[in-house]
Phosphoinositide phospholipase C
Amino acid sequence: CNPLHRQVHQDMEQPLCHYFIASSHNTYLSGDQLLSQSRADMYARVLQAGCRCVEVDCWDGPDGEPVVHHGYTLTSKILFRDVAETINKYAFIKNEFPVILSIENHCSIQQQKKIAQYLKEIFGDKLDLSSVSTGDPRQLPSPQALKGKILVKV
């Protein structure tokens, strides 16, 4: 074995769009998409396994509290706040590179405001609030520049 090949080098200074990102679909589900349980701890599991993009399907919940579940099915519901707290706790334990929250939004304006409030309160300085123009993808920040940050796409 060539000793020069023993070291792994990954250039993480390119724009974010130059990379494949380990993603999760219906992250909150512990089983099938029709009847299974929604659980906040599923986010801890996938983040610790190296996933960097997680899906959060948000719906209007009772008492003004947004919930996460697979809409129009019999899956259980969990509070958005619990999901955000779990993500905050586990986002950077195994990996410092950015975490992307892929939010599928089905909420009223009132509950969208509640989601925004929770994102700011729970993630604090980790939440990347910078504005990125999508006109030129070469202008996107690099994974290296976004270490320790939570990005939101809706």
The chain is about 20% helix and 15% strand. Residues 109-123 form the longest helix (15 residues).
